[in-house]
Amino acid sequence: MKAKLVDVFSAERFGGNGLTIFPEADGLSAGEMQALTREMRQFESIFVSREGEDFAARIFTLDEELDFAGHPLLGLAYHLHEVFGEGERHEWRVRLNRRTIGLTSHRRDGRFTATMAQGRPAFLKTLTRDEAAGVYAALGLDEGGHRNYPAEVVTTGLPYLILPVPGGLEKVAFRVPDLSGLLAAHGARFVYVLDVEGFEGRTWDNAGRVEDVATGSAAGPAAAYLHKHGLTLDRTISISQGRFVGRPSRIEVDLVIEAAELVDVRVRGDVVKVADLAFVA
């Protein structure tokens, strides 16, 4: 079985968020996909199969399958362009478990950029101050975060609790063994701690064991949050992540606004190939 290793949200190898792409996923069971993901020890892996002119994909973390994710799909755009593309720019359709995603790939002057249209964001819940205080405390942020802006659950496919802070991301320290129950009570899957002054974020698995390097599925909701609360007037927002795990990454989000309404968020980033892999049969 062949596989490909790429780094997403970086223009140089060994930066950004690493990803393993398995382009020969036909016939693999969910258990086999999960085992391969754990073998690679990256935050996520993506498994691809061909469906006529389009493609189908399944995404796994070390612990579970996801219906949607960001950097695996941008990394997949690199693979599709490398194998099937002929010009500088291509568009692709990828079917996931619950939706179909549009991707754009662009290669020029040795640089590769991928873009994903995440669609209109949904603002699912605004937490009360007391509700938010429980989440802040669970992360060791006992001062209550940024009191001028609310904690809010936002989704473009995967619901994140956006937890605003005025800097101080280095202060986060998990005080609970698992955030899952606390987040589920508010309709969120994961938390994204967002520095609303420096436009930098952090997120983890819900046990706090693994910190993600760069999270495309959270960048869309984070940018929508910044726009909603008037924290930026720009239609292109740059969010940094990964500093605390030694892999600084840059995520660009383009906001599509029509008649004063945010109708689409498009997450993009650089992708660079690291290796072609072959698994022993």
UniProtKB/TrEMBL annotation:
It comes from the Bacteria. Coiled coil: none annotated. One of its GO terms (cellular component) is cytoplasm. The active site is at E44. GO terms for molecular function: isomerase activity. Pfam families: PhzC-PhzF. Belongs to the PhzF family. This is Phenazine biosynthesis protein PhzF like. It comes from Halomonas beimenensis.
